Amino acid sequence: MSIAVVIGELRQEVAELSRRLSNIVIPGRVAAVDPANALCRFQAGGLTTGWVRWLTTRAGADRDWWCPTEGEQVVLLSPDGEPNQGWVLPAGFSDAFPAPDNDPARHVVAYADGFRIVHDTANKHLVLDGWEAEGTIELRAKNIVIKTGEEGFYHLDHAGLATRLTHQGGTQYKSESWQAGSVVVAEPDHGFHPPEVEA
After folding, report:
1. Which of 7, 52, 67, 193 could form a disulfide with 186 if both were Cys (CB 3.0 to 4.6 A apart)?
2. For the chain, what are the domain ranges?
3. Contact at 8 Å (CB) between 171 and 177?
């Protein structure tokens, strides 16, 4: 084999290695999504991949599902340098999808329909907010337990009225509108009747 042939082959190998190396990590965006199969297409410049998987936090007995959005800014990780064998990693803010907050003390999850989860560590305040979404929050379980501290209270706003409910011990509760033991008896100062409570 001549020196020229060897040099030519080496050049080809170097070019292929260079191509693969440049394809290991590529910033781009989600071009399309196939939710039924948990796959998406990645696009960056003139490159558009076939259907590839996106990374999630858990995918075993415990699983996390959060489908990416078309146009979302992401990164394609291809350990062997082949984009069609890569994984899509989340995610970076962009002009199309800017950051939902700018306070470093707040952890915010903002959903497309308007729901928000906000944890403010500076003020020790956690909010599950569906107000702007005009949606419904539903809790389902065999048992649901809500606990407050010794000086804690429940505050309920409904139909334009506010009710503050304070636990007095045992089955005794007191509110701005009524006071009761095992059975709630209404005091009609707010014009509504609280529900019956079993001991």
Report:
1. 193
2. 20-92, 99-136, 139-199
3. no
